[in-house]
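Internal tracking record. Fields below are filled automatically when a chain is submitted to the structure queue. Please do not edit lines marked as system-generated. If the sequence contains nonstandard residues, flag them in the REMARKS field before resubmitting.
Queue: standard
Priority: normal
Entity type: single polypeptide chain
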Amino acid sequence: MIRRFLFSLIAACGLAPMAALAQPANDDCAGAIELIPGATCTPVAGDVVSAQSIPGTVLCDGFNATPDDDVWYKFTATATAHLIRVQSSASFDAVIQLLVGACNGTPIDCQDIVGANSLEVLAAGGLTIGTEYLVRVFSYGATIPATTTFTICITEGVVPANDDCANAIELIPNPTCNPVSGTTENATASISGLVNCSGFLANPNDDVWYRFVATSTTHTLNVTPSAGFDPVVQLRDGSAGCNGAPIICLAEGSTGVAVNLNLTVSS
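SYSTEM-GENERATED OUTPUT FOLLOWS
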């Protein structure tokens, strides 16, 4: 029986004063705060406390998010691709929506992969240099989170082609190793939560994906990292499609050390 596999690679209250109840300055699209894209992230503090919104829900990554507490930002594209990064606070499950056009414009993309207290990254591609875009940030749930703060920034750069499982790069098993170059630079999280691997809790916030079809009952996945990279290799069942059930995981827990994951395939 031929089995298909996927594997991902990751680097290792009391009463508030009246002033606090005022709506944020960027509560509405007309008051959107301008962000300047840069080569590196310069975090800008944000808060959705007392924010209000347009009624309805937003379908984002398969989930119906409730934008009852949104705040607005805008930026002018300086490249055809930008990364919108939102670091949420302890109880804030951030949703990022990208729009274009006049206020409350046309939705282009949306990102809601990770949960609260995580870095959510929307990789925006196909942008037009010189065009102004809108960014809407809100919490996923229909109730006010215990913590309402976050930081946001916009950087230049593109994500790897195999950033998501749907675009996993195919590897062909060989008797000898034929190395394929890879990178996790600007990669974003595909599945929320930590991965318990070889006794370590790894954070897959920068995973990239590969796939292969087993041609033998035994295979070895070899990942040789650069000097400062601490690789984690997770094998998942690809027979049911993307993001299949985890099978095995291996990490050495050291930077620059190769990982050799030995796999035995049942017939």
